[in-house]
Amino acid sequence: MGGAAEEALRREYVVGEEIGRGRFGTVRRCYAAATGEPFALKTTPKAALRADPLDLALAEQEPKVHHLASAASRHVVALHAAFVDADAVHLVLDLCAGGDLFALVSARGALPEPEAAELMAQLADALAGCHRRGVAHRDVKPDNLLFDAAAGGALRLGDFGSAAWFGDGRPMTGLVGTPYYVAPEVVAGREYTEKVDVWSAGVVLYMMLSGTVPFSGATAGEIFQAVLRGNLRFPPRAFAAVSPEAKDLLRRMLCRDVWRRLSAEQVLSHPWIVTRGGSVPGGRLV
């Protein structure tokens, strides 16, 4: 660090300790110099990205796309400021200090249906809002679903480093995302729509209900082949106690036929979501 963007950043924020690290950058705690309010600071140096034009382009467009998404739903990690120059992209974000969904499922295993339904409702609300504003996340996975302890543990969709804007009606292309969660049309190299996020959210829901993923393999290539086959199964050992309504939603989200796959808005209207997995009808989002 040390460019003009960092100088401008440090005039407004006090940068603290590292709290996370990704494939290309780091996340640090930071504080508003004027008020002491805590935030998360995501820094992506551009030097490591120059060998891949797609990675560099995604990093450079992330502030604009995340800004659009920030206003889409209270279940999106908000972007508060962006500082960009030739050296790096610095994003000041909500500090979600309650951990992530991957850690929760890893520690507890399968979640009760009412809890899984409430979390899926919050994720679907985030995705529906993003899609209305022309933003596809393209890397929905438990690691990017954060709990905001300051907001009663509400779920927040974060990390828009792979996101794309489709608001001009053009289809999206490019192999982006994470093998276990990526949609088959992305793996196949075809043009695709924002419904790739619904597929990924379906994998997240499957994981919440069973503690495992529906499509697996020993290598990324094997996982991609399993995704392309799309052979959705509900092993009795993991799904014996899961309701038919939950399985119906999974089939509709993990549908290889994009036209038959639900939209995020339709997920919110599914009976299993409306009743919060069998809890009191009319439950509200956090």
Automatic annotation (TrEMBL):
It comes from Zea mays (Maize). Keywords: ATP-binding, Kinase, Nucleotide-binding, Pyruvate, Repeat, Serine/threonine-protein kinase, Transferase. InterPro entries: CDPK_Ser/Thr_kinases, Kinase-like_dom_sf, Prot_kinase_dom, Protein_kinase_ATP_BS, Ser/Thr_kinase_AS. Residues 13-273 form the Protein kinase domain. GO terms for molecular function: ATP binding; calcium-dependent protein serine/threonine kinase activity; calcium/calmodulin-dependent protein kinase activity; calmodulin binding. Belongs to the protein kinase superfamily. The keyword Kinase applies. GO terms for cellular component: cytoplasm; nucleus. ATP binds at K42. It holds the Pfam family Pkinase. The keyword Repeat applies. This is Phosphoenolpyruvate carboxylase kinase1. GO terms for biological process: intracellular signal transduction.
